[in-house]
Amino acid sequence: VESNEQELETIRLFLRFFQKPEFLVSLIEQMEIMKPDQIGLKYLLATSYHRTGDFSKLKEIISRTPLPETVRDITGERQTCIQKALYGIDLKACTKWAESAFSKNPNSLANRFTLALCYLQKNNPQSARSLLAHLLQRSPPLCPTQRIIGALTLHRNQASEQAKQWAPIKHISLLTDAEKKFLGEIMHSRK
User: Fold this and answer.
1) Count of other CB atoms within 10 angstroms of residue 181
2) SS3 100
3) What pTM value is reported for the model?
4) Over the stretch 100-152, which tens digit does the pLDDT of each residue have?
5) Whole-number Å distance between alpha carbons of 159 and 132
6) Residues whose CB is less than 8 angstroms from the CB of residue 151 and which lie 6 or more positions away in sequence, other chains included
7) Cα angle for residues 147, 72, 35 (degrees, 5° grid)
């Protein structure tokens, strides 16, 4: 099969996606500038910055990504809520969103951990523990963020040794700077 010059140029452009993630991120950034009301582009940028470890840009994009009054795009909204809560941004809106998501689906572990994080950030570790009590008696989940939330809940409820067992110390490379700060709080505590 032969390709014309235009098709080859298109293929060359896509090869850059595989060689340098920065190229793809810069393309999404340009798209977000052209269409600032496209919330999905903000979600995609937040995920990209998280995965590439560009935490200053992650914090910047989530600070200007609004949470809706009602739950619509559960995955993108929940991820935004978690990141905002981790950085202590717009905790009132995050808590409202997380409570709404939890009330719609209380069996969702992701919703439960998201709401617990909001409570922790609002200095209410007892409510976070109530939400997670039955889960904290089990083995920690695989998700490093859920493990941080569980460990922080235990730590702030004076269960420091159990908190250290929940801490995702083998997954530090997957954590954001905000999560690493919480990990430091957990691991450097005294009994």
Assistant:
1) 13
2) helix
3) 0.86
4) 999 999 999 999 999 999 999 999 999 999 999 999 999 999 999 999 999 99
5) 14
6) 140, 163, 164, 166, 167, 168, 182, 183, 186
7) 100
